[in-house]
Amino acid sequence: RDEMVRIRVSTPWALVIALCVGIFIYRGASAHPRTSRRLRLSLLAHNMLKGSHPDSYPLKLTATKVVNEAVEFETEHLMKVLGRIDYHVLLEAVRAVGLPSELLPSELPPRIDPDRDLPLLQKLHRALYEVRVESGELHCPVTGERYPIRNFIPDLLRKTAAFDKPWKQMQEEGDQDYLRTVR
């Protein structure tokens, strides 16, 4: 049985405020999916992720479930983002999620004109923003750690027990595997 919260209302304004808060809570609970759209793992976010080791970029993506979500196309924003991404990592991620390899060219043109290259920009937008990884795994090429992706969110916390040991204890025991991964 659902329990009801009773609020004692002393003025009409308090009643209006209580109703507005109740409607906001009700709509908020039903309108938003389990994970906010902004937090869902896109290929743009994957392109910028790295593991705990300094040389762990890029993380290898293995996707088991991929979802396409419509996102508004903004040319100016996309042009700014293109200067910050590693295009070859994006191509690997496109292959990992199962998109056709013909979707994107093997190399980006040196200069992209928003008017002339609109079809290319639309394809880049689709790959970077609209493709979301719901479940899968990220793999660190240096440490070998695997980070699961569940409900669109990658769990980047370390799971290895060796990383829980204090640094001084590692040096005393001479744990070379750990010391190699932190340097």
Automatic annotation (TrEMBL):
Residues spanning the signal sequence: none
UniProt keyword Oxidoreductase, yes or no: no
Gene3D superfamilies per the UniProt record, alphabetical: 2.20.25.10
Entry keyword set: Membrane, Transmembrane, Transmembrane helix
Disulfide bond recorded as keyword: no
Transmembrane regions listed in the UniProt entry: 12-29
Gene Ontology BP terms: rRNA (guanine-N7)-methylation; tRNA methylation
Source taxon at top rank: Eukaryota
GO molecular function terms noted in the UniProt entry: protein heterodimerization activity
Name of this chain's protein: Multifunctional methyltransferase subunit TRM112-like protein
